[in-house]
Amino acid sequence: MSLFTAVEMAPRDPILGLNEQFATDKNPLKVNLGVGVYFDDNGKIPLLECVQLAEKELISKPTARGYLPIDGIAAYDSAVKALVFGGASEAVTSGRIATVQTLGGTGGLKVGADFLKKLLPNAGLLISDPSWENHRAIFTQAGFNVGTYGYYDAVNKGIDFPAMMKSLNDAPRQTIVVLHACCHNPTGYDISQEQWDQVIEIVKNKELTPFLDLAYQGFGSGLAEDGQVVGKFIKSGMNFFVSTSFSKSFSLYGERVGALSVVCTDKAECDRVLSQLKIMVRTNYSNPPIHGGSVVAHVLNTPELRALWEEELGEMRVRIKLMRSMLVAGLKDAGVKANMDFITDQIGMFSYSGLAKDQMVRLRNEFGVYGTDSGRMAVSALNTKNVKHVADSIAKVMA
Ligand code: LMR
Predict the structure, then answer these.
(1) What is the C-alpha separation between 196 and 233, in angstroms, rounded?
(2) pTM above 0.85, yes or no
(3) Residue 15 Cα, ligand 1 centroid: separation in angstroms?
(4) Whose CA is nearest to atom 2 of ligand 1?
(5) Candidate of 134, 178, 244 to mutate for ligand 1, largest count of ligand atoms within 8 Å of Cβ
(6) Nearest CA residue ID for atom 1, ligand 1
(7) How do residues 310-369 score in pLDDT, each as one tens digit?
(8) What's the CA gap between 267 and 253, in Å, rounded?
(9) How high is the pLDDT of residue 149?
(10) 60-77 confidence digits (pLDDT tens)
């Protein structure tokens, strides 16, 4: 009798699990639109020039690898604050934002989730319907009962804003609300700035607890535009959480470079919150790794590299938009009669195609086109060579 006899086989991860299946697929035309990763027009994950230059400089001055402080590299944490909140923002200069370097945006969510479970053990938690699959998993693992707020309008292809407002209005005080700051994952539909104002008002009036997930800053409309909502939350005077990630914006997926920032009321409160966040980090993984955070800090804190990064980020953003248009055109050419223009209305890495699970399974099995079962496709992996095959394949499963 083994200790593990009763252990059940867990299902594959709905997103990363697709990579495993994709790797073994023999179809020469296969395209991986499953995981949210940006590939260039040659189908390669780019190694940004700003990253290469920063790495060269860092390697030219080799340093020993002692443990980092629990909250990470100080220059990294301050660069995150400057990027996300604005260096001159009162919240930053008064020292009331607690930031810890985390293992990617996922790590930021988990550290925040663990802290919130201690702080508000009985609070409910809402994610959008639908949301990134891992939101539910992370917060469930941290002990929350995860519910949803209305978001996607499948019939009209867009956002059901009245449903979103109703869910927020009905939520009990202190309910934690996970909000996608930009480039909503999986739908690609963001609420407007005016709608954000209404959301913020209701979150404030109902005394809900906002947790912003900002994983795609720079992939929507631009760095400032994509971060605009953070400024609105600061202005509201609320306490809130923001998890950020450089996986996509620096094309540093495997380095796990992210952060959690908690906006507090004043410096003394911030010191206490930070001390608690450090316990969460210490008991999960002790302290973060050095390399990725050093690279990002070096780029963000060196004006020429920072300018180069913004340029390279802009190129990725523009190419994704071009791929959206090419996909719409390709679908028309392939004979799809339905209006597919919503693909260019969506923003960020993903398109929520509206295809059903059986169509997504057919796309994978018959055509080697991998998206998630929810119908989400990472348009960031399309290129001028594969977009026709993808469009033709979608047309076939829609016929
Ligand atoms: C995604 O949604 O595909 C990305 O955020 C990658 C991930 O970790 O799931």
Answers:
(1) 9
(2) yes
(3) 7
(4) 36
(5) 134
(6) 36
(7) 999 999 999 999 999 999 999 999 999 999 999 999 999 999 999 999 999 999 999 999
(8) 33
(9) 98
(10) 999 999 999 999 999 999
- Exposed/middle/buried for 347, CB within 10 Å: 0-12, 13-18, 19+? buried
Angle between helical axes of 133-141 and 104-119 (0-180°, round to 10): 40
Mean pLDDT of the chain: 97
Give percent of the chain above pLDDT 90: 99
Ligand 1 lining (C-beta closer than 6 Å): 15, 35-36, 132, 134, 185
CA-nearest residue for atom 5, ligand 1, is: 36
Instruction: For residues 307 and 303, give the distance between their C-alpha atoms in angstroms, rounded to a whole number.
Output: 6
Centre of ligand 1 to C-alpha 186, Å, is 9
- The minimum-distance atom of ligand 1 relative to the CA of 106 is 8
Q: Which of 72, 98, 73 is nearest to 84 (CA)?
A: 98
Query: Is residue 248 flagged as an active site residue?
Result: yes
Rounded CA separation 215/196 (Å)? 18
Can you spell out the DSSP letters for 248-274? TTTT-GGG-EEEEEEE-SSHHHHHHHH
Q: Which of 81, 110, 157, 248 is catalytic?
A: 248
